Amino acid sequence: MLRVEGLSVWYGATEVLRNVGFTVPDGEIVALMGGNGAGKSTTLNALSGLLKPRGGAIKLGDRRIDGLHPHDVVMAGIVQVPQGRYVWPSMTVRDNLVLGAVTRRDKAGIARDIEAQLDLFPALRERQKVRAGALSGGQQQMVAIARALMARPKLLLMDEPSHGLSPKIVEEMIDIIRTLHKRGMTILLVEQNVGVAAALAGTAHVLRNGEIALTAPGGELLNNAQLLKSYLGR
């Protein structure tokens, strides 16, 4: 599905990512992990077209997408659920979902997909006419995920979906992501919560100082004390 080769991203005179390479197989969940400042969000923003790489290649299937405008990246099939959710607070839940389909013109399909997202997130069906800014953090995260799904992505990028949520809501997020995976969704998951990554990812890549320092099966993360201490600061 996705192949990243030799990715290099700079902020001004600072190289934030250097020679980063990894793959995300079709239908799999892959975790990208690391401490604060390791380059996780920078990687997602480069994949989304929000940052222009200075070097390397990003391939979705057989197509190179590095350098594309973010709108064209969405059209190609990559959609990001950003850290912090970034819902439109003054708009209703339903209108947020409609805006997630901004690249589409199939009105009947959009209407069906809104119903599908409300089925996936029953709490949102009850609040679809409520302004998104009035929702809890967990409900806003549901809106952000549902909004991204409205674009019918081939690859879903999720940036810290468990951040700032209670343990109970984190468990709900894990269940939702598992459901998407069972439906065939390909997911690149950025997470600092080792438990979440271990529960979901088949493979985990650990970033350290802008480079891939380690690749391991997701299920091994919780049992690797050296990894937790050396790469994640735990």
Concise summary:
With 234 residues, the chain is an alpha/beta fold.
- Total domain count: 2
Order of helices and strands: EEEHEEHEHHHHEHEHEEH
Q: Any idea what the radius of gyration is?
A: 17 Å
| Shape type | globular
CATH topology of the largest domain, anyone? Rossmann fold
Strand content: 25-35%
Which strands sit side by side, in order, in the main sheet?
Answer: 6-7-8-3-9-10
Largest sheet: 6 strands, mixed
Secondary structure class reads alpha/beta
Mean pLDDT: 90
CATH architecture of the largest domain: 3-Layer(aba) Sandwich
Note poorly predicted spans: none
Provide an overview of this structure.
The chain is an alpha/beta fold and 234 residues long. The protein folds into 2 domains: 2-77 and 155-230, Rossmann fold, CATH 3.40.50.300; 91-152, no CATH class. It has helices spanning 40-47, 70-76, 93-100, 107-120, 122-125, 137-149, 167-182, 194-200, 225-230, and strands at residues 2-11, 14-24, 29-33, 55-60, 63-64, 78-81, 155-159, 186-190, 203-208, 211-217. The strands form 2 sheets. A 6-stranded mixed beta sheet has the order 6-7-8-3-9-10, with helices on both faces. A 4-stranded antiparallel beta sheet has the order 2-1-4-5, covered by helices on one side.
